[in-house]
Amino acid sequence: MTSLSASGVSSLDSVPVRRSPLARFTRRGLRHPGFMAGVVVLAVILVCSLAAPLLTPHDPYAQDISRRLLPPVWHAKGSWEHWLGTDKLGRDYFARLLYGGRISLLIGVATVLVSGTIGTALGVAAGFFGGRVDLVIGYIINVRLALPVVLVALAAAALVGSSLNTVIIVLGLLLWDRFAVVARSATQQIAGADFVAAARSIGCSTRLIVMSEVLPNILNPLIVVATLEMAHAILLEAALSFLGLGVQPPLPSWGLMIAEGKQYMFFSPWVITIPGVALVALVLAINLLGDGLRDVTAPENRS
Questions:
Q1: What torsion, rounded to 10 degrees, do the Cα atoms 95, 99, 104, 109 define?
Q2: Cα–Cα 20 to 30 A to 232, which of 18, 32, 42, 103?
Q3: With bands split at pLDDT 50, 70 and 90, how would you rate the model's confidence at 220?
């Protein structure tokens, strides 16, 4: 009797504990150093940008020519009143850095929403229906891939006019191709699955099948693409703003801050270094997050 009970206890102890998908994702994410680094850095930038009014008393638009180009606090003439210094118009650099993070994050998220919607819709339609629909959408994707993004964005901004809304719309209409390619490939793998055939057999409409069966199963790769395209959009906005065709003054865009400080880079190098380091940190964090999501959600890690 004792041996039986002991063997029964040991067999119960050896039964693996089944975790929820969220628990498995969290456990794998905590073990991935790149993913955690991206999450931490991105969270810090997000919190600082959203809490900008609480972190600085200065107005990012307030000008004071008598305080122009004050050095940061680690310089001999620096002060804690403007601990990151001021720009050429005497505006507090820390305040402009915080509020500039809002603009970069807004452009990244809004661009991904626009481009993701367009690309996912085209990719799902091509992968699900196939045939002539796939041929037409494939031709549209090839035409888009033949267009250089930077040159088209520069031309569009020069013709339409430079503004925050223009940058978001132009980038959203140019960065949908990766969403379309990934969504098409993933949908082609899902379209012939048994659960899709079962949904068709019970009379579900095409819209219901796409919304309830296809989209949830291709969401993971699309999220990874979204993170990478967000970083791409932020870099493109910085490039456009640096060339004077992106976000316009007095908005505190990081690319615009670099452009405004380029003439002082040899005498006051912090006016370029500070927004440049912030831009690199944001893009690197988003790329680490996307790379980590790809590893964490890989099929071999879902068991």
A1: 150
A2: 32
A3: confident
Taking Cα atoms as reference points, which of 221, 302, 137, 187 lies closest to residue 196? 187
CA nearest 236: which of 86, 96, 110? 110
Query: Mean per-residue pLDDT for 255-270?
Result: 85
Q: What angle do CA 177, 178, 184 make, to 5 degrees?
A: 90
Distance of alpha carbon 263 from alpha carbon 91, whole angstroms: 17
* Spatial contact of 148 and 212, defined as CB atoms under 8 Å apart: no
What is the spatial distance between Cα 276 and Cα 94, in angstroms, rounded to a whole number? 13
Residue-level pLDDT at 12:
44
Secondary structure string (H, E, C) spanning the chain: CHHHHHHHHHHHHCCCCCCCHHHHHHHHHHCCHHHHHHHHHHHHHHHHHHCHHHHCCCCCCCCCHHHCCCCCCCCCCCCHHHCCCECCCCCEHHHHHHHHHHHHHHHHHHHHHHHHHHHHHHHHHHHHHCHHHHHHHHHHHHHHHCCCHHHHHHHHHHHHCCCHHHHHHHHHHHCCHHHHHHHHHHHHHHHCCHHHHHHHHCCCCHHHHHHHHHHHHCHHHHHHHHHHHHHHHHHHHHHHHHCCCCCCCCCCCHHHHHHHHHHHCCCCCHHHHHHHHHHHHHHHHHHHHHHHHHHHCCHHHCC
CA angle 77, 83, 84 (to 5 degrees): 95
Could you give the percent of the chain with pLDDT greater than 90?
Answer: 36
Q: Which two tokens stand for residue 245?
A: 């065709």
Identity at 127, one-letter amino acid code: G
Average pLDDT over residues 99-108: 91
**The predicted structure's pLDDT at residue 300:** 54
Mean of pLDDT values over 277-293: 90
> How far is 117 from 64, CA to CA, in rounded Å?
44
